[in-house]
Amino acid sequence: MRTAQQMMDLILGVAGNDERVRAVCMNGSRTNINVKKDPFQDFDIVYIVTDIKAFTNNPHWIDIFGERIIMQTPEDMVLFPPELGGRYTYLMQFSDGNRIDLMLIPVEEQEAYCKEDSLTTILLDKDDSLPKLPPPTDVNYWVQCPTEEHYKDCCNEFWWVSTYIAKGLWRKEMLYAQAHFNNTREMLIQMLSWQVGVQTDFSRSVGKNGKDLEYLLSKEVWEKLLATYNNASYDSAWQALFTMCELFQSTTTNVASMLSFQGYGESAKVLNYLKHIQKLPSDAKIIF
Predict the structure, then answer these.
(1) Domain spans of the chain?
(2) For residue range 102-140, what is the model confidence (pLDDT) as tens digits?
(3) What's the rounded Cα separation, in Å, for the pair 262 and 191?
(4) Model's pTM, two decimal places?
(5) What's the 3-state SS for 167-226?
(6) CATH class of 142-279
(7) If one looks up domain 4-138 in CATH, what number appears?
(8) Is the pLDDT of residue 284 over 90?
(9) Which pairing describes strands 88-94 and 43-49: parallel, antiparallel, or unpaired?
């Protein structure tokens, strides 16, 4: 596996030898001092260029970065419609284990780009045209304090979608139920993130997809969160649903108390409804 220094030398060497590349920036975990370094970290690189089509018209120019085992170019995919305007991205996984996510940005957008991400750092500026940036920080990724409306919407979404899970489990539609488990757990992770936010004065991130919650929650709460991931048997799924409800209910109470919000009043009624569905016989013709 090429070392990080070898990769950086390559990335900057390619840019330095190509007049079309006017600047190089980096963001992501490698610029975040709060992220533990490991060999799986991507190199999130931006080349600011004079002519994007000059690159995209030659699909083999990226071969210089090394042998790839797989690549995505999202702007060319119909599965994920382009969202970056005139930008273009190469997501490259190399056979030696390194990965580069390389975005091409036209020079006309360079100032706007530099304001987008607090983790951005400038590696090369041939024309001395980029704005001076402060040291990279993950402040843009810190948990944000919710409004009371946002809090209530999160509660409503959790309890509303939980009824879909119960319906799917009663009907023996496991894939349907599992899809909605994912939605409700997203709300649970959001609520747990707000709780961490209050406890840390909204001064830190919980990581992508809440990955750092393991180190920010108590052991008891973390184990309850893990227990919401069922083994796809119906008994396990019902248990996971009620564990999720219990954890969400206690977390919403905590968050409401800490932020002086009014608690969500529908949870008890929905929980009773879920328990009722669980007990219904499989041939039930009437719900109540």
Answers:
(1) 4-138, 142-279
(2) 999 999 999 999 999 999 999 999 999 999 999 999 999
(3) 15
(4) 0.89
(5) HHHHCCCHHHHHHHHHHHHHHHHHHHHHHHHHHCCCCCCCCHHHCCHHHHCCHHHHHHHH
(6) mainly alpha
(7) 3.30.460.10
(8) no
(9) unpaired
